[in-house]
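Extended Data, record Peroxisomal membrane protein 11A isoform X2
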Amino acid sequence: MWAARHYYYSLLLSLVRDLYEISLQMEQVAHDRAKKEKSPSQDPLVYSVADEETEWLQSFLLLLFRSLKKHPPLLLDTVKNFCDILNPLDQLGIYKSNPGIIGLGGLVSSIAGIITVAYPQMKLKTR
């Protein structure tokens, strides 16, 4: 239990670091895009509240996708950490999972680890 708890905390900190890196990448992509689009944008004629809310979500998801596409090691590390955290969550009783889900998470995490060993440029480098 002691080892699982500390492994859980380590993975939580790694996921926080990944989220921070993702936010930095999203800011960079948004800044680059704004710099590229210096021309004044044309406003559409009519908007509804639902359009504005879905547009915000779509633009956020598009920015997230572009950020992770531009920085694949960050995506790989985030997926690996997310898959790794399933095991201690189950062991500590925080979130009980099916053994198949834990096994699948372990498989995906192992594949991500193998990719980082086979291709060193895919290893996340922190600032």
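Summary. The chain has a mean pLDDT of 89.
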